Amino acid sequence: MEQSIFAMPWSRASFERELNENPVARYLVLEEGGRVAAYGGVWLIIDEAHVTNIAVRPDVRGKGYGEAIARALMKLAGETCMYMITLEVRRSNAAAQALYRKLGFQDVGYRKRYYEDNGEDALIMYAALPSPQGQ
Q1: Does residue 134 sit within a domain?
Q2: Quick check: is 100 catalytic?
Q3: Were 40 and a residue from 13, 55, 62, 69 both cysteine, which residue would form a disulfide, CB within 3.0 to 4.6 Å?
Q4: What is the crossing angle of helices 65-79 and 94-102, to 10°?
């Protein structure tokens, strides 16, 4: 699935390290009909969360699965006392940027030539998270 979505897919070894060796990593999977339809990951570091990836299988796009995963990652981060969440997104990925803005993310800067495959800049986005106690 990773290879059908991303120009620079993570390797199996990268995912295995994330799942088995990275104590700050959390991953969520959404299944449809017994198959992975979408997944997303986040690093929970001190009091900030960083989205590592969100992926939706191409044949099930348009069903709201990307939004569901993003919302679930934000909820997980908030419930584990993170106060903010950040991510990078390709400057050309208008659909993802629109989704993140819908969820309360704001543009905060750029990472020049962030993507190795084509040297594209990444837009850095940030959202504040409510505390689990509603404070």
Answers
A1: no
A2: yes
A3: 69
A4: 50
- CA-to-CA distance for 97 and 126, rounded, in angstroms? 11
Catalytic position from the list 88, 110, 115, 120: 88
**Options 39, 100, 116, 120, the catalytic residue:** 100
Q: Is residue 133, in this structure, part of any structural domain at all?
A: no
CA separation for the pair 44, 24 (Å, rounded): 5
Determine the structural domain holding residue 8 and report its residue range. 2-128
What confidence tens digit (pLDDT) does each residue in 74-98 have? 999 999 999 999 999 999 999 999 9
| Pick from 49, 62, 10, 2: nearest CA to 29 | 2
Please give the mean pLDDT across all residues of the chain: 92
Q: Are 6 and 55 in contact (CB under 8 A)?
A: yes
Q: Bridge-partner residues for 128, per DSSP?
A: 84
The two most distant CA atoms of the chain are separated, in Å, by 43
- β pairing state of 35-45 and 25-32: antiparallel
